[in-house]
């Protein structure tokens, strides 16, 4: 569940405030880096929230920007302190997409397009285990179990009784047809997908093969939106060795338009449910 202090979100907001101070000062990231004898990439990572920010970093930057109001400095220092706290996901060790988990934990809504797999938030434990084992050949049994536990913990965001995450998932037919694990696992996964799709805050649409070419052919992506207006909507693109987070309004708008086209080309929610139900029956009959 979302905590009152989400370190990822705190780091992100702090970075935004530091960027505003730099821009008010009329300085470039390169100029700041030269003043502090650090790399320009460090300043960029601090501002985009992808790097942990220490109170010393805040103090040094406020000095460069000439911030004399102690209340502002103290507030930023407190945010830096909170941003260094650990979220629930840190208990599971090194998770490569921990920044994304932090954002997902605090998000109000999530739109996701998946081309090859059932979205992680909708996966069964057996399916998640088979996905991890297949996509990470060198993983140990302990590695797989840890990843599955994280995925199941993430699902608490869509099962919260009070404030569940609003999830909209467009899933390519390939994800329903590709056998992951075995046929029994696939039948179980399809049945769970149907059950989740009945929840009022979850919408699942299937993009069938016969729609032909579509905007999602470039690959999967997610769009996260937040209740707090300070938190910009973010497009998440998952990579093999690194991930990409897009926050510029033009980028978010481009992906949002793409998503609307995918929604229009996909089967509606009821027809998608019927489609998945038929696929579940097919997997069960072959098991």
Automatic annotation (TrEMBL):
<dbReference type="InterPro" id="IPR010982">
    <property type="entry name" value="Lambda_DNA-bd_dom_sf"/>
</dbReference>
<dbReference type="InterPro" id="IPR043917">
    <property type="entry name" value="DUF5753"/>
</dbReference>
<dbReference type="Pfam" id="PF13560">
    <property type="entry name" value="HTH_31"/>
</dbReference>
<protein>
    <submittedName>
        <fullName>Helix-turn-helix transcriptional regulator</fullName>
    </submittedName>
</protein>
<dbReference type="Pfam" id="PF19054">
    <property type="entry name" value="DUF5753"/>
</dbReference>
<dbReference type="InterPro" id="IPR001387">
    <property type="entry name" value="Cro/C1-type_HTH"/>
</dbReference>
<feature type="domain" description="HTH cro/C1-type">
    <location>
        <begin position="18"/>
        <end position="73"/>
    </location>
</feature>
């Amino acid at each position: 569940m979302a905590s009152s202090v989400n370190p990822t979100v705190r780091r992100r907001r702090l970075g935004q405030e530091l960027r505003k101070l730099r821009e008010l000062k009329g300085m470039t990231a390169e100029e700041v880096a030269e003043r502090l004898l650090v790399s320009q990439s460090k300043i960029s990572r601090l501002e985009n929230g992808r790097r942990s920010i220490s109170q010393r970093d805040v103090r040094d930057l406020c000095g460069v920007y000439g911030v004399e109001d102690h209340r502002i400095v103290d507030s930023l220092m407190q945010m830096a302190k909170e941003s260094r706290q650990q979220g629930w996901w840190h208990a599971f060790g090194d998770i490569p997409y921990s920044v994304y988990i932090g954002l997902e934990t605090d998000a109000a809504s999530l739109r996701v397009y998946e081309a090859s797999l059932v979205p992680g938030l909708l996966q069964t434990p057996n399916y998640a285990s088979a996905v991890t084992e297949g996509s990470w050949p060198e993983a140990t049994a302990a590695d797989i179990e840890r990843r599955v536990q994280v995925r199941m913990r993430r699902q608490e965001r869509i099962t919260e009784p009070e404030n569940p995450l609003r999830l909209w998932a467009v899933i390519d037919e390939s994800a329903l047809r590709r056998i992951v694990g075995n046929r029994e696992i696939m039948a179980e996964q399809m049945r769970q997908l149907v059950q989740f799709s009945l929840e009022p805050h979850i919408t699942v649409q299937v993009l069938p093969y016969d729609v032909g070419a579509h905007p999602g052919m470039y690959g999967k992506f997610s769009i996260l939106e937040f209740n707090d207006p300070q938190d910009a909507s973010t497009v998440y693109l998952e990579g093999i060795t690194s991930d990409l987070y897009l926050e510029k309004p033009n980028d978010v708008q481009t992906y949002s338009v793409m998503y609307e086209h995918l929604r229009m080309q996909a089967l509606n929610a009821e027809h998608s449910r019927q489609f998945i139900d038929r696929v579940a029956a097919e997997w069960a009959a072959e098991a």
